[in-house]
Design brief:
The longest helix has 43 residues. This protein has 754 residues and is of the alpha+beta class. Helix content is 41%, strand content 13%.
């Protein structure tokens, strides 16, 4: 079978179906799909409205729901799938109980932890509603209720004579107008998202639930079993799940936390199955994937993998090490920075996997060939030549220009990483924005954004330590101090008394000691109070962090204006390129899904193991030692096999006792002779999909997506037939809840009968 480019929104499987249903062909027997084939591929992060195009494929694989039901966002099952603003989740009871990943609730678990009561280590279970804890400040649950195409509204504000900055401002103004009209209904958050690089724009209207509470999270020795060592790896044995609850006012409206608030009643919730899937079973995942780069040019691919990822991977690893060294072991600071360290290590490992995947692939060569094919396709038709003349060249020139100063830009962007300075910069910018009418303020600083800003200012202290903050600042400033004198920032150097000498680092360190000693920015109440300060009042402030933010304000605004100008230029060129791709593939009968952009998407696949690509790095464990292919399930037996009694391979004593006693109960899988813990599927996911419900053909909850394999990290750029996502099995979730943590109340609430 002909190899299908991973850029295409159609796998080899889909092509077979299209060929079988061609209007020129004779009637065919029912289509069958060989899911065991090495070429089986289920690429695609589909907008719900696109799913009817895939109806035959979905139903053949095992979808039992009407395909059209997946396009209706206010009905089952899509209305049960919600966003946490960075992770995905789902309603699993009529009382607003929310299932998501342990690592998605990690910040809230950490926020409620103390040295005396470490919920990360001990886990947490609210035995009754009144025991449920407020999530970290700023936590939100977003329920998507409508998606509207507003492309024409945006395009009406644009013309080809605009500069990049003018175009960027016009798009922002149009978006603000659309959002303001949408948010006239209280309790809703609306946002405009671009698709296909700005070729299309859609308005998302979401109910914004502001009272979010932590209900249950297993101990990290379950929820984070394997830690950074097992992160991105297979076999995996991680119970990456937790539960929130959505609360609203007594009248059913979104409200801030209050004792009188009541559990939210969702329109729909997912029925929780008691058994997970079997090998080759159909699964689908709905969620809010963050971003992918499937449609980037050859030049962008080359720069990303040869410069950005290698540079950033080292920075992330050293950043994490700097925090760890400054915090020390067993300290309150270590607890405060646990979530950030986990995130940094995750990204560092991700970027390493990106580079390794790229090195063994022919991605760049395929991109180069695609662009040659595109140009030949354009040149072969006069109408296309007129429509797309120089589209690819103009975009490539802009990309090349952007990369010329990337080393300097990187050093300057990261020259002052400090929680206190970040807060000061926000306050100074807010003071200037507050002088404008609300509809003239920059996105992110309008009245609608003030609760988010306040929550961010409030939660700093739970994740802040002075010694760590300074250590991180000194780590990042090293790259800045190495810049040539003509590339340094005069305002920054003058503030710290730097002169380009070998003593600069010492001078800056001494100045920082003075700043931390003299500042009142460590006081949360003071930070919030300054939200109403005027630019003049902040200019007179004696707080050194505010003084630095005031000093750097004009420079920061100049860089922002330059960035917005570039963004405006891209918003003109990228859509032309994407339209060209869509037309090119359209002539071949191939639909194209948009790159991920944090909006609701649906992906499908089957439970399936895989054979690692030649030259890939893999880890042998759980019965796979010496075997060059991986089975799609792990079991309780693998937990005891990996157990060492020390983090990250520790386990609660009661869990080990239950496993040793083979107390599997109703979650026993005869085929596995144990209880399934994690499983692999072919679904197409990325960051932001964490916490996404995994559903069977009936739309029942059968687990949570939480990771991908190390061999699949590169899928953000290059999805292949060996790409796999990792899920925690509903069987394991319920087994832990029933046999380890005794969460009887929640099991009954979800309809799990004893």
């Amino acid at each position: 079978m002909k190899r299908i480019s991973p850029w295409l929104a159609t796998s080899a499987l889909s092509l077979t179906l299209v060929a079988c249903s061609s209007p020129d062909s004779t009637p065919q027997q029912e289509t069958t799909i060989d899911v065991t084939s090495d070429s089986f591929n289920t690429e695609g992060m589909w907008m719900p409205e696109q799913l009817p195009q895939l109806g035959d494929t979905l139903q053949t694989l095992g979808l039992e729901l009407p395909v059209e039901s997946l396009t209706k966002l206010t009905e089952f099952p899509m209305n049960a799938v919600i966003s946490l603003g960075g992770c995905t989740a789902s309603f699993v009871s009529p009382q607003g109980l929310v299932a998501t990943n342990h690592h998605c609730a990690y910040g809230s678990i950490q926020y409620n932890s103390t040295e005396d009561n470490d919920l990360l280590a001990n886990g947490f279970y609210a035995e009754q509603l009144t025991d449920e804890l407020p999530a970290a400040p700023g936590s939100r649950i977003y329920v998507t209720e409508d998606v509207v195409d507003v492309t024409s509204d945006i395009n009406a504000a644009l013309n080809d004579e605009m500069s990049g900055l003018e175009r960027n401002q016009a798009i922002e103004n149009a978006e603000k107008s659309i959002v303001a009209a949408c948010e006239e209904t209280d309790g809703y958050r609306c946002n405009v998202y671009s698709y296909y690089g700005g070729l299309q724009y859609y308005l998302l209207k979401q109910m914004e639930i502001r009272d979010v509470r932590l209900v249950y999270a297993p101990a990290s020795s379950i929820g984070k079993f394997g830690g950074d060592i097992d992160n991105w790896m297979w076999p995996r044995h991680t119970g990456d799940f937790s539960f929130y609850r959505a609360y609203v006012s007594p009248t059913g409206q979104p409200a801030d936390f209050a004792e009188e608030n009541v559990p939210f009643t969702p329109k729909n919730h997912l029925k929780v199955a008691t058994q997970g899937p079997a090998e080759h079973d159909f699964v689908m995942v709905a969620g809010y994937p963050g971003s992918t780069n499937r449609y980037r040019t050859a030049l962008e691919v080359e720069n990303q993998f040869n410069w950005y990822y290698p540079t950033m991977q080292k920075v992330l690893a050293n950043w994490s090490a700097t925090i760890g060294e400054a915090a020390g072991e067993g300290t309150d600071a270590e607890l405060k920075y646990a979530s950030q360290i986990a995130g940094l290590n995750n990204y560092a490992k991700n970027f390493m996997g990106m580079m390794e995947g790229y090195a063994r692939s022919d991605l760049l060569q395929r991109k180069v060939q695609l662009e040659a094919d595109l140009q030949a396709w354009i040149d072969s038709d006069a109408e296309r030549t007129e429509q797309y003349a120089n589209s690819l060249n103009d975009l490539s020139e802009l990309i090349a220009e952007d990369s010329q100063n990337q080393e300097r830009d990187f050093a300057i962007n990261y020259m002052a990483r400090s929680s206190l300075l970040g807060a000061a910069n926000t306050l100074v910018r807010l003071a200037h924005e507050n002088q404008k009418a609300n509809d003239e303020r920059t996105l992110g600083y309008q009245e609608r954004d003030l609760p988010r800003i306040e929550a961010g200012l409030q939660r700093i202290n739970r994740r802040y330590d002075q010694n760590v903050d300074k250590a991180v600042w000194m780590f990042f400033v090293e790259n800045y101090l190495a810049l040539p004198a003509d590339q340094r920032v005069a305002e920054f150097d003058a503030f710290f008394g730097l002169n380009g000498s070998a003593e600069d680092a010492q001078l800056l360190s001494a100045k920082l000691d003075e700043m931390y000693a003299q500042s009142s920015m460590e006081d949360a109440e003071n930070r919030v109070t300054l939200m109403t300060a005027t630019p003049a009042q902040l200019a007179e402030s004696e707080d050194p962090f505010i003084q630095l933010a005031v000093t750097m304000f004009d420079f920061r605004m100049q860089r922002e204006e330059e960035a917005r100008d570039r963004s405006g230029l891209y918003s003109q060129l990228r859509p032309r390129y994407m339209q060209m791709l869509i037309d090119f593939y359209g002539e071949q009968g191939l639909p194209v899904y948009p790159d991920a952009n944090s909006t609701l998407r649906v992906t499908y696949g089957v439970v399936k193991g895989y054979t690692p690509p030649a030259g890939s790095f893999t880890e042998a464990a759980d019965g796979n030692d010496g075997v060059d292919s991986y089975v799609p399930f792990t079991t309780l037996n693998g937990i005891t096999a990996k157990y060492t009694g020390e983090d990250p391979f520790d386990s609660p004593a009661v869990q080990l006792e239950q496993i040793e006693a083979e107390n599997y109960g109703r979650y026993y899988d005869e085929t596995l002779d144990s209880v399934s813990v994690n499983y692999l599927t072919t679904v197409d996911t990325t960051g932001g999909n964490s916490g996404s419900p995994t559903m069977n053909g009936k739309g029942e909850f059968i687990g949570l997506l939480f990771d991908g394999t190390y061999d699949s990290i590169n899928a953000d750029w290059d999805f292949t037939s060996s790409t796999r996502s990792i899920h925690v099995d509903v069987s394991y979730m319920l087994w832990v809840m029933e046999n380890v943590d005794n969460t009887e109340r929640l099991l009954e609430e979800m309809g799990i009968e004893h």
